[in-house]
Amino acid sequence: MSATPARYAPTPRTTPVRNADRAGYDRALVHAVLDAEYLCHVGFVADGAPVVLPTLYARAEDRLYLHGSSGARLMRIAREGGVDVCVTVTCLDGLVLARSAMHHSANYRSVVAHGTAHRVADEREARGALDRILDHVVAGRAADVRPPSAKELAATGVLRLDLAEVSAKVRSGGVNDEPQDRDLPHWAGVLPVRRTVGAPEPDPELSDGVALPAYLEPYRAG
Amino acid sequence: MSATPARYAPTPRTTPVRNADRAGYDRALVHAVLDAEYLCHVGFVADGAPVVLPTLYARAEDRLYLHGSSGARLMRIAREGGVDVCVTVTCLDGLVLARSAMHHSANYRSVVAHGTAHRVADEREARGALDRILDHVVAGRAADVRPPSAKELAATGVLRLDLAEVSAKVRSGGVNDEPQDRDLPHWAGVLPVRRTVGAPEPDPELSDGVALPAYLEPYRAG
């Protein structure tokens, strides 16, 4: 959950960035935002109506992976030739309080990825995707768990979305009031928003002698 | 951004809660989640494809209000008799590291609201909704800004969604491994996730004598 260069970009305005041409900078920004968050919001259409659900995810190069119960609606729809999705990831960085009501805003970084997500049929790719999702939660975790059994794998749907139609948007910096509002007697500024991961809370039933692994040490300070 | 009772519920499993009957408990949970977050993710269908965008919002009784540029796609679609939306709000509370890969999870509270959102035509309701959105960001803010001008109001679309088809989902508590996995030598537990709003950063061009208002004092400690 480290800050990305985008967060400190000097642009006070939102910056839509199309990734269609895969320009180096855009790609780096898109990847940085995707790597900085834990949850995405995946949108799809079911019976003609939009559905938006939060879920864990992971990025591998220019692919996104999602997973869920193979019986879940999203996974069932995907079975028939894929499912059109919009996957959105948003990092909230600040609350922008302007002197005027309409210039209030939020500092944020977001990525919106459109496309057809497909069920991953290949067992090796599916296992790799699930490992990625674990390592996205905590780097190093996938190597330190009991891996999925064949039965668990069969009960799990893995979706793959190639990052082809992607845009990133960044709003950073300070207040952007109209010139004629700048002398108004209202306080203006930014409330920075941060997310922190606190100190690990061990399972009360942890076996004797199981120490905090090295990859969790950085979280110990809370 | 205070914790809700739901966060400390003892249920280790997700708890889907339908609000259709407006039972007192469900309603309180739905409201608590909606009041705890800053951003929602609104999903709609444009040209047959799902779109999911992050945006500020506010709740007023059993209504949600969203706003945006009146030229934005969502607002344009809404003009013709409303727009079918799915508004999802998610608070991430923790990362759950189980001994087995497939029991990894997240602690979270989420609300998913479906329905047809309508453009607010009444100026008084629109102004009230924009005030609510400001006060949702920081309680007390709406009374301490230059209000929207008629021109700004004309350029702004306000959407109203009645909370009729709403569900809340809560995952809280600890690790939920299979009994046969409990003696495995992998560390298991929860990494708590918190979001904090830091100390106010004043606009460098703040007029002389403009002090931090009382409603921002609680944020001063960061």
From TrEMBL, chains A, B:
<dbReference type="InterPro" id="IPR012349">
    <property type="entry name" value="Split_barrel_FMN-bd"/>
</dbReference>
<protein>
    <submittedName>
        <fullName>Nitroimidazol reductase NimA-like FMN-containing flavoprotein (Pyridoxamine 5'-phosphate oxidase superfamily)</fullName>
    </submittedName>
</protein>
<feature type="region of interest" description="Disordered">
    <location>
        <begin position="1"/>
        <end position="20"/>
    </location>
</feature>
<dbReference type="Pfam" id="PF12900">
    <property type="entry name" value="Pyridox_ox_2"/>
</dbReference>
<dbReference type="InterPro" id="IPR024747">
    <property type="entry name" value="Pyridox_Oxase-rel"/>
</dbReference>
<feature type="compositionally biased region" description="Low complexity">
    <location>
        <begin position="1"/>
        <end position="18"/>
    </location>
</feature>
